Amino acid sequence: MRSRSLLLSVLVGVIVAGAGAGVASASTCDDACRVDGARAYVAALADHDPSAVPFHPHATRVEAGLPTGFSGDQLRADLRFGPQYRIIRASDETYRVRGDGVVVAEFTLSVGAGPVGLTTARVHETFRYDDGLIREIVADIRIGG
Question: At 35, is the secondary structure helix, strand, or coil?
């Protein structure tokens, strides 16, 4: 009975530790960690797999002054299922961290299907973090590069 209780305790510990895997806290999420989160977001725009994006539960996104994201779950669902992301590709990515810890991502977004290119846009997005998780994304998009 004692070994069964010990086994159960170990399993619960492994499950709890695993539940937090990939989620950094403020004390462990340095500049490289924040850049990795922004990179994961940009990658998810095109590959539709937001599982590596460290969204805060109350994450928001604003594009051209208009709210386009209201929670981490909604942003994750948009990246996974949103038709607006089905025909885009990101390239020419650069990332830097400002003195206030905000990550600035700049990249070119190409819109089109297969060999048919419709347009390109230059994107400037800032990522603010709270406790190691993306809390706010603000996007400025300029059509035509």
Answer: helix
Please give the Cα distance from 62 to 138 (Å, whole number): 5
Say which residue the tokens 């961290």 belong to: 97
Sign of CA dihedral 125, 128, 134, 136: negative
Cα 125 from Cα 62, distance rounded (Å): 10
pLDDT in tens, the chain (145 residues): 433 333 223 222 322 223 333 444 445 899 999 999 999 999 999 999 999 999 999 999 999 999 999 999 999 999 999 888 777 889 999 999 999 999 999 999 988 766 656 788 999 999 999 999 999 999 999 987 5
- Taking CA atoms, 130 is separated from 20, 30, 57, in Å, by 16, 12, 10
